[in-house]
Amino acid sequence: MINSTTRSYVDECLQNHSNLRHAARKMELPAVYADSFGQVLLDRPLFVERSEIEAFADDLHKLYSVMVSLPDRLYGGDLRAYCRAIGMDDALAGLMCRGARTAPVLHARADAYHDGERFWLLELNVGSELGGTDTAQQNRAFLDVPEFADFAERHGLGHLDTVPRVAEALRRAAGPVTSGEPVIALIESTGGIAAHEHVFLAVREAMAEHGIRLLLGEIQELGERNGKITLRGTPLDVVLRYFVAGEIAGDPAAQDVLDTLLRADEAGTTALFLGLDSGVYASKGSLALFHDPEVRSALTPSELAVVDRTVPWTRLLDPGLNHAGDRSGLLERCRDERADLVLKPGVGYGGVGTVIGHRVGDEQWAEALASADGDAVVQRRVVPAAEPVVDALSGRTEDWAANWGVFVDEGGYAGGFVRALKPTDGAVISFSNPGTRSSCVFTTG
């Protein structure tokens, strides 16, 4: 967002063509992180008031507390009933609910836009499989560039490294299992490590700096010995889950391994961080419930205030899920407000299946609305404030749009990172779009 620090940075980049402007190009990143992300870096970091991003994270914490209370408050404690209410496929819901006992620990990353006045939550990625946790490698590399270090000192910049928070959470999960340094493995679905090895190697590199020796493996490589989970024969104290329910839904062998993991977790021999049930609350349908008239009637004024300043208007479109019986009125509103709305699947990643209302015509939009079922949601479009970036090579200043990744855990704000895209390169800011670039976040104040 354009604040005084952003303006100062851009001004200094334009005035000093050889130094600060080239800070991003002069960074010396750790070797593995550089191999993974060195080619997709934005030419500057982004800046935000620390009090503002901490307040947003505090609202996320409150919002999550309300969210995980809804199964008890509205559905008699039946998590499967909650899944039906958010339009989740029944088979997928059954898989996610395996082993669910209590509300999952808050370990999440918000994807948010800032419209120039405040942050708005587009989706809340709840669970252990979070990307971007190692982005503080960029912060440290920026601070190693003398010109940027001078700028940071003059403007009182700071940053929060997410990796120590993850390491702390993993050690806490290992507490009932071992009194020593835990043996931890990041576990992906079959083929998952091979497909994204550079990402996981960078995470392992960052974790090693905080004393965590992270093993990498896939679900089919797990075994069990004397009640304890093993990876290629090595006993594990904690499994850091990076596979998601959709990746093992059609794999009976992987589901058998999941059941073994859940038994070990319940027995206290190997801890699972975190269960698949955390993904229930990651569905965008969970955000849509907050704008359902009947659900809103059950919320307190203070809860509604958090919802209304955090979550843009979001509704489920499935005809069987609108408790107020307002399907026809909802569709009419959606057709009339096409340019201000976005249609997307409740469970999904990387913007796949998203339809941007202002980028399609009335006919295509009407067809998309009519065919939407299951967990599809429609959400008010948030227009992100322009982020001016001075291109290090050309010296041109161009506007970019930013998708802020805001990490939050039980302790509140846990760090952040940004994915950015020039508006001319598309409307979905995700690494599935080749124009997307990565950047780190510095806080001011």
Q: Keyphrases for this structure?
A:
seven-stranded mixed β-sheet; globular; 21% strand; 445 residues; Dna Ligase, domain 1; alpha+beta
Strand content: 15-25%
Q: Tally the helices: what do you get?
A: 19
The proportion of residues forming helix, as a percent range, comes to: 25-40%
Give me the Rg, rounded.
22 Å
Assembly level: single chain
Give the CA-CA distance, first to last residue. 15 Å
Number of domains: 2
Structural class: alpha+beta
The main pleated sheet reads as: 7 strands, mixed
Mean pLDDT: 94
- Uncertain stretches of 5 or more adjacent residues: none
Give the number of DSSP strands.
18
Q: What would the principal axes of the Cα set say about the shape? A: globular
Description:
The protein is of the alpha+beta class and 445 residues long. The protein folds into 2 domains: 4-282 and 385-444, no CATH class; 317-381, 2-Layer Sandwich (Dna Ligase, domain 1). Helices cover 39% and strands 21% of the residues. It is built from 19 helices and 18 strands. The strands form 4 sheets. Strands 1, 2, 3, 15, 16, 17 and 18 form a 7-stranded mixed β-sheet that branches. A 4-stranded parallel β-sheet has the order 5-4-9-10, sandwiched between helices. Strands 11-14-12-13 form a 4-stranded antiparallel β-sheet. α3 (31-37) runs antiparallel to α11 and α4 (50-75) packs across α17 (301-310). The protein is globular, with a radius of gyration of 22 Å. It starts with a helix and ends with a strand.
